[in-house]
Amino acid sequence: MKIAVEGCSHGALNAIYQHLRDLEARHNYIVDLLLMCGDFQAIRNHRDMQCMAVPQKYKQLGDFHKYYTGEKTAPVLTIVIGGNHEASNYMSELYHGGWLAPNIYFLGHAGCIQVNGIRIAGASGIFKSNDFSLGFYERLPYDHGTMRSIYHIREFNVRRLSLLSSPDIFLSHDWPQYIERHGDTQGLLRRKPFFRQDVQTGNLGSPPLMGLLRTLKPKWWFSAHLHVRFQATVQHEQSGTGSNSLPTTSPPQNPDEIAIADDDFDAVESQKPPIEDSRLQTSSHNPDEITLEEEEEEVIQSPPVAYRPQPSMTNFLALDKCLPKREFMEVIDVPTTSDESTMPGQRCMPKLTFDPEWLAISRAFHPFFSTRRRQADYPDEATARAMVAEEMVWVQSNVHNNEANSSDVPLPGIRTILDCQTFVQSAPGPGSEGAQKNQQPPWYTNPQTTAFCDMLGIQNVMDFSSDNRA
């Protein structure tokens, strides 16, 4: 399956989809899936725009509303996460994930789904230590503080994600902390010299995300946020046990805001030719490591080794924002376990399904989902994993496609997303906001969130129409 990955979109969907079509024509291939790494800006109308934490001059409708109202349709299945420049009210409506528009699916504040058998997990938002341990307490209308805290990632979601088995792909807006040490750090600093202090102090990136990267060991990890293309390779040591510790955090903070216009062409960057479609390098060779051939003359005697397993590896790639001559899109090939086949020159039909393990985690951790500032204590790892195993039995017994809506053979725990969630316009499009277009909107309880909760037999605590707080 050919998968395109895009960095920060900032509402420029028309340009992104046109760039994708240009790549397909230039390289004579068909892209089957598009992943977008935050700052998506799913702004439905002018009132949504009042819920986005950006300077006033950057409050623009963008292109998304055309896809929301049906004026345009996304030409390829698009999966997105949230960043720190979002209409946070809309993404909160779909806390557990859902269709932002036809053919555009939001992973939720945290989530994992499958596309033709490829497991794609993700975490929305950015790290801020002051809010990390809090519950999801923010309510409309947002003030200056809650308009920003609402997109700060919570420990609740990091703990849930840490219980996944290894996904194929992980999406985050933030970079994992210290990821720059696994790539060309000096090259990064030549392009972005103002990163130097954060790199030296360990403040570049998110501590809990590096914990997740080390715990989950995905094959690919894609990020955005810092408006620069950066590639790294993280080697993982073989674990002696089948269990991983929950990720821990450390004191360093991540810069809260990356200004939208803070990185217009650096002198060095503007001279660098764009590489719009380079492939991820998957070599496991560490250039700073002495090879066995170079070492042989110094080794007197080596113990006999029948087999030495190769360490697992995560390919990390951060991408820029959508602007001319910027490296904001990459295309990769990912093997699929699906039986779906297509003729040459045709786009495959992506089959989007819920991930059974994530559904089990969602059920297991639902009692700890707080919609107040105070967050209840979490179970220890062993208890949490036992809870997930118990809920997996429930998922396999109770989650499946409705026979009336599907010709597929029912599989335990497998349900296509469209069988449960269908896109609904929960708010009006632009031009229908009335006289209050410059005010924040009311809360809309999204039917897709209700459907997700009903599928899992859990309470929809994101129904704030009656201020239903946990």
From TrEMBL:
It is found in: Nucleus. It comes from the Eukaryota. The keyword Hydrolase applies. Its cofactor is Zn(2+); Fe(2+); Mn(2+). Residues 235-258, 270-307, 425-446 are annotated as: Disordered. InterPro entries: Calcineurin-like_PHP, DBR1_C, Dbr1_N, Metallo-depent_PP-like. Residues 290-299 have a biased composition (Acidic residues). One of its GO terms (cellular component) is nucleus. One of its GO terms (biological process) is mRNA splicing, via spliceosome. Residues 300-462 form the Lariat debranching enzyme C-terminal domain. The keyword Zinc applies. GO terms for molecular function: metal ion binding; RNA lariat debranching enzyme activity. Residues 235-248, 435-446 have a biased composition (Polar residues). Keywords: Hydrolase, Iron, Manganese, Metal-binding, mRNA processing, Nucleus, Zinc. Pfam families: DBR1, Metallophos. Belongs to the lariat debranching enzyme family. This is Lariat debranching enzyme, C-terminal domain-containing protein.
